[in-house]
Specification:
By secondary structure, the chain is α/β, with parallel strands linked by helices. The protein contains 16 helices and eleven strands. The chain is 48% helix and 9% strand.
Length: 410
């Protein structure tokens, strides 16, 4: 693009700056404008991505048709389908009339979908169908409608990362990303930062009839070395604050430092800290911690159940062995003196009643066996809980919990 054409575009849309990355983005927008395909604009929040869709529409064959800007992140998830694709009367509470939606009213025109990375997955599927064949179905409707709309989308989200995390459809990304235009962050625009500061300061002075603030050379260098995580939006806010609150109109680095954060290396707007000894950078680390604790508890339960099962088998074996040893004596014929009792052939022999010796019932539940096992282990180890836990093959924590459960912790 010729320099004169580029300057004309900047004047028309009030664009300030001469950095190469900005000029390249404007040139790409003008090149793709006549070609009726979807465009994806990528850049950080506050870099001015909304200028490029307007340039594309105004220099396209659709420039005489309607142009709509839709902030996808500002529309509630429950109503965004109705906003985009319309609805039929009675499809939900409050739907008292039919609505064509943006895709209906913008037919033949251009839709700018800002923050497209915030779209719900169900809405992404509907949008993909529109991009593929221009068809959509209103909410609550059954009739397929046609539309001829050009889509220009923008996002500050890392779409490839969102795809890997299952938050964005890869097929929709490739449909939107027919042409990719990158808007540079403010920290990479060099002297454009000073030019923008001068513009915002002049606007404040003219609007509120105050003396314009001016930067010293040292303050200009400080301004250009700051990382500007909020980009142009943050720069404008800082300029307005200086214009209002600074009594000095010649801004030095000392004055400027009161209005911008001192940490010049970070590009983050805020640092989130967690209390306590541990800090989790993301949800994955938190889930790992929970899983490790659950696995430890499950292993303790397995060891405890295995120990109880073994003790139950030992008790049952000892009981059967005791019965087998007692039965011959108890079932032997009664004797009187040294002679055994005899019965005539005509007399009916009556067996002496066998009374089984008292022993522990075998139908105790698991809790009863566990309590008995704990008591025996404590008795064998002289009340030493650590040794008792080692004997039972359970952790000290599990032993303490069982003692408290059975009332043995006193």
């Amino acid at each position: 693009m010729k320099s004169s054409e580029l300057q004309s575009i900047k004047q028309r849309y009030n664009i300030v700056g001469n950095c190469e990355a900005l000029n390249s983005a404007l040139d790409d927008a003008l090149k793709v404008a006549p070609i009726d395909i979807s465009v994806l604009i990528i850049g950080e929040s506050g870099v001015g991505k909304d200028i490029l869709p307007r340039i594309i529409h105004d220099n396209s064959p659709r420039r005489r048709e309607k142009y709509f800007v839709i902030n996808c992140g500002a529309i509630p998830e429950g109503t965004i389908d109705s906003e985009l694709f319309g609805h039929v009367k009675g499809s939900f509470t409050g739907a008292i009339n039919d609505s064509p939606g943006y895709f209906g009213v913008a037919n033949k025109g251009t839709l700018f979908l800002d923050e497209v990375g915030e779209l719900p997955m169900a809405t992404q599927a509907r949008l993909l169908r529109v991009l593929e064949n221009g068809e959509y179905i209103p909410v609550g409707g059954t009739e397929v409608r046609k539309t001829d709309v050009r889509i220009v989308a923008a996002t500050n989200v890392n779409i490839e990362k969102a795809i890997s995390e299952g938050r964005f459809r890869s097929d929709l990304y490739y449909r939107l990303n027919r042409v990719n235009i990158q808007m540079p962050p403010l920290r990479e625009r060099g002297e454009d930062i000073v030019l923008l500061f001068r513009l915002f300061a002049m606007e404040m002075a003219e609007k509120y009839r105050m003396e314009k603030v001016v930067l010293t050379d040292e303050a200009k260098q400080m301004l250009m070395h700051y990382k500007w995580p909020g980009n142009i939006r943050q720069l404008k806010s800082v300029t307005e604050q200086i214009s209002i609150f600074s009594t000095e109109r010649m801004i030095t680095p000392q004055i400027l430092s009161r209005f911008i954060p001192q940490d010049q290396e970070t590009t983050q707007l805020a640092l989130i800290r967690t209390e306590g000894d541990h800090s989790f950078e993301n949800e994955r680390e938190i889930l790992y911690k929970i899983l490790f604790e659950l696995r430890s508890n499950v292993n303790d339960m397995r060891r405890e159940m295995s120990s109880l099962k073994k003790q139950l088998q030992d008790v049952q074996g000892n009981a059967h062995q005791a019965v087998s040893q007692l039965a011959p004596t108890q079932l032997a014929p009664a004797t009187f003196g040294s002679q055994p009792a005899t019965f005539s052939e005509t007399e009916e022999a009556v067996a002496e009643e066998y009374i089984e010796p008292e022993r522990e019932p075998e139908n105790l539940n698991v809790n009863d066996w566990s309590r008995q096992a704990l008591e025996k282990a404590l008795n064998r180890n002289g009340g030493n809980r650590k040794k008792a836990a080692q004997e039972l093959g359970i952790s000290d924590r599990t032993l303490y919990r069982r003692l408290k459960q059975y009332g043995l912790d006193k």
